[in-house]
Amino acid sequence: MESIASNIGAIREQINSACIEAGRDPAGVRLIAVSKTKNAALVREAFDAGQIEFGESYVQEFLDKYDDPLLEQCPIEWHFIGHLQSNKVRSIIGKVSLIHGIDKLSTAEELSKRALQHNLHLDYLLEVNTSGEASKYGISPDDLLSEAPSLFHLPNITLRGLMTIASYNRVAAREEFRQLRTLLESLRTIAPDPSRLTELSMGMSGDFEEAIQEGATMIRVGSAIFGWR
What we know:
- The protein has about 230 residues and is an alpha/beta fold.
- The protein has 9 helices and 8 strands.
């Protein structure tokens, strides 16, 4: 069995190769290690191998790891990548560097409210359902540009870009990654400050190379690092 350290090394080599093929700087792609359902010891092993950014999807599980003594001295940069309900926002305020899964105005408003209460500034991404699957969360691509203006002026939070979970079919996934990139470009044309809209969180263990080809700035990789859950 390959070690977590060797898996991370192999993925970083793949990232470099995909970036070179796409004519991109590998420094422009951040690897988010998806550590949901993995215990603190495995997170620590990945951290000791040089991985800094980790993605969690379940609030209580994340909070347990956040407070785990094994990780308390580790300057981990936590990302919340799962669907976030409004009533869970208060639990993660001040503990994560980026929230990937905001998919409605009401959740963004709650995020803004809590950020104001705690005198914090938070960055987030809008999740877009590019596959059109009913089982997935995310704003419809057709609704994005009409709903986004309501988000731009919410205090103490900044929309930094878009996130998607693509289809399992890699051909379809690549088209969806391309669509997300096009949506971000369109969003920038109506944003008060387009320079803030820089992030595309897309691509996972089975399709991150295609995502990089289409402009991903963050890839979310779990099983290729930690093994199957």
